[in-house]
Each structure stands twice: as C-alpha cells, then as structure tokens.
Amino acid sequence: MKRLNQSGSHIIGIALFVLALGVVGFAGYKVTQAHHQSADSSSTTTSKTTPSVPASIKTSADLNQAGTVLDGSSAQLNSGLDDSSLNTDLDSML
C-alpha cells in the first residue's frame, strides 16, 4: 500500500482553528459594541431631561439648584420602588 505524504497537514487544522477563533472574537466584539451603544444612548437621554448640579456651590442659587435636583431624584426613586415585595420578604423572615 502506498503511503501518502502527510507532512504539513496540521497547518490546515491550525488555520481552521484560527478562523473559528476570529469569527467568535468578531461576533463578541460586535455584541459588546451594540451593548455599549445602547447603554450610551440611554444615559444621554436621561441626562438631557434632568437639570445639572453645579460643580461647586458658591451662591444660594447654586444651593437651591442642587436641592431641586436632589428632590427630583428622590421623587423618581420613591416612585420606582415597590414596597409590597419588601413587605412580603420581611414577613417571611419573621
């Protein structure tokens, strides 16, 4: 039986492995870029609707502006809370 020369055949396997690794890496890169773009767009829309806090408070107007921002943030936080699940968890612990 004639024996075929198989020297160099491992290069094909290595090339296929590198190709598969590149495809998986590219797909992961595209997914992370899409995730970062969606997170950036959502953070820019919320920052446009809320007033900004002054970098340093030097006057009473700056203090009033900071207080207004904090009051608005507190109201948003309180409206988003669901205390029924907290009450259920606390009752189950007792």
Major sheet: size, sense and barrel closure?
none
| H-E order | HHH
| Low confidence ranges | none
Estimate percent helicity.
over 70%
How many DSSP E strands?
Answer: 0
Overall domain count: 2
What does this structure look like?
The longest helix has 40 residues, at 10-49. The chain folds into 2 domains: 8-50; 57-94. Helix content is 77%, strand content 0%. It contains 3 helices and no strands.
Question: How are the SSEs placed, and which strands pair?
Answer:
Layout (H helix, E strand, L loop, with lengths): L9 H40 L10 H21 L2 H11 L1
Summarize the structure.
The protein has three helices and no strands.
Task: Provide key terms for this protein.
single chain, 94 residues, mainly alpha, 2 domains, 3 helices, 77% helix, elongated
